[in-house]
Amino acid sequence: MLFNSFGFLGFFAAVAILYYLAPHRWRWVLLLIASYYFYSAFDLKYLLLLGFSTLAAYGGALWIGRGGGKAALTIGVLVQLSVLFVFKYFDFFAGAIEDAMLSFNVVSEAIALPRLKLLLPAGLSFYVFSAISYQVDVHRGTVPAESHLGKLAVYIAFFPKLLAGPIERAGTFLGQLNTPVAFSAAGVTAGLQLMAWGLFKKVVIADRLAAFVDAGFTNPAFQSPVTVLIAVYFYAFQIYCDFSGYSDIAIGAALVLGFRLMENFKRAYLARSVPEFWNSRWHISLARWFRDYLYIPLGGNRVAKWRQYINVMIVFLVSGLWHGANWTFIIWGGLNGLYQIIHGLLSAPRRIFTRMPAWLSTFLAIFITFHAVALAWVFFRATSVKSAWAVLTKIYGAIPQLPTLVKGYTFSGEFYLSIGLIVFLMTVEIFDERKPVSQRLLAMPRAVRWAFYYAVIFAILVIGVWNTKGFVYMSF
């Protein structure tokens, strides 16, 4: 049951109505049933894994809370990671071990280790990370062990965030779950507005760009350099609108039900540096998860500079592997880690920007950051390192001829519509950066405000691309 489907919209409307009709003491039951039904719509067998992860987190946290100490925490975390390893990484590491043994002459001829060939359950990485952070927080004493299994199950399986986050902290969520919520017209309206904007980004922009991206990344060596270049630029906006659109829908749906989930995106392509992009604008909940549960335990920035850079690289390599069991994701993570290190090392040369007019230095910083991120996205999107390299070499080899190639290229109406939508998106984000668009709309006359709402809804229903593409991050 995808967010970008009429089935989900009907399901959510029914849940929201029942939620406010039900007494507070039974709402957790409704949310649990709704969340498990939502997840079972993908594959009924997924519920077994979700239930196992929940029971393991529940038992592990109680053990930790009763004095189990580091041993209980270690076992609890390893149980969760073992689920990830079996379903996501076993086959990848089996292949890597085979290659390493052959490369280092451990064996004289290629060997074949067993493969599990398991399908990756939707949202596995997200709810496993939620289960891990909950147990770590119990060990740190920042949240008590939850004695109510049902409520903990709601935290882990809450359907708006289940498949692709935000990775909410247990203390924040459980506190809201235990607090009675009265119907708020303002809260419901704000939530519906956010859901509509998320749907717009997904079905009107992201899924329209997908056709251009697929064309450029399919056999790139045999595509026109312009087709490949368009695919690279459009993929940067496809994945942004796809993932931030999911987050908007998730946060908006939760808000309709009276829950405030953490902000996950913040006008990412207005970042002026790669550290800013990752620390405070893109997938914020995951960045904070790695900061709190990996980077700081490694020593963070409280160590020597060289060690801090190693910590940064470890975090980004692990982040790459978290996204997928493929060398492309590891390279993507490594590139972003390298960007962070280079940014730290070039603090003196970067002072040249202070001598420029403010508008020019801002533009150049955003321009450079965007292209650095877009370059790394090539490895994120490509199905193999060879394919990613083909994309980059195709573009690089054609740079001298690009003006001529662009002039002779036939651009479709869909292309110009896509460019217009990207310009519209960035215009909204630039205005939103200075003052939230929601506040701007409230200050406008009612007729103008509702005209904007109807225009967005019209675009979603009429030019939206429905039910053709799942959300990118569901596969992680």
Structure notes:
- This protein is an all-alpha fold and 476 residues long.
- It folds into two domains: 12-183, no CATH class; 187-475, no CATH class.
- 72% of the residues lie in helices and 0% in strands.
- The chain contains 19 helices and no strands.
- The chain has helices at residues 6-21, 24-40, 46-103, 124-140, 149-157, 159-162, 170-177, 185-217, 225-256, 274-280, 284-298, 305-323, 327-345, 358-381, 385-397, 402-407, 413-434, 437-443, 446-462.
- Helix 3 (46-103) packs across helix 5 (149-157), helix 12 runs antiparallel to helix 13 and helix 14 packs across helix 15.
Q: What's the short version?
A:
The chain is mostly helical and 476 residues long. Helices cover 72% and strands 0% of the residues.
Sum up the overall morphology in one term.
globular
- Structural class by helix and strand composition: mainly alpha
Strand content: under 5%
Count the E strands.
0
Order of helices and strands: HHHHHHHHHHHHHHHHHHH
Largest sheet: none
Count the domains: 2
Average pLDDT: 93
Please give the structural blueprint.
Blueprint: H1 6-21, H2 24-40, H3 46-103, H4 124-140, H5 149-157, H6 159-162, H7 170-177, H8 185-217, H9 225-256, H10 274-280, H11 284-298, H12 305-323, H13 327-345, H14 358-381, H15 385-397, H16 402-407, H17 413-434, H18 437-443, H19 446-462
Helix pairs in contact: 1-2, 2-5, 3-4, 3-5, 5-7, 8-9, 8-17, 8-19, 9-14, 11-12, 12-13, 13-14, 14-15
